[in-house]
Design goal:
Distance between the termini: 32 Å
Number of domains: 1
Structural class: mainly alpha
Radius of gyration: 13 Å
Helix content: over 70%
Strand content: under 5%
Number of strands: 0
Number of helices: 4
Length: about 70
């Protein structure tokens, strides 16, 4: 389980750094897409479901967090 979480964090950092060059409005979507694509490369351990479902869930989570900023 520790290795799984470590890999998820590594992929999140990689996606974040890769999206820094994207336009501000596209960074979040690019990060989410890249992270999901990266987890699919290790789908046996890290599978997160369908991309569309994942994006809907993460975008609504992001919007909820923005209310409290």
């Amino acid at each position: 389980m520790v290795e799984r979480n470590t890999m998820r964090y590594y992929l999140a950092i990689d996606a974040y750094l890769s999206a820094l060059n994207a336009l501000d409005g596209n960074q979040l979507i690019q990060r989410l897409r890249q992270w999901h694509q990266s987890t699919d490369e290790y789908s046996r351990q890290l599978h997160e479901g369908k991309l569309d479902d994942y994006l809907v869930m993460k975008l609504s989570e992001y919007q909820r967090q923005q209310v409290f900023r």
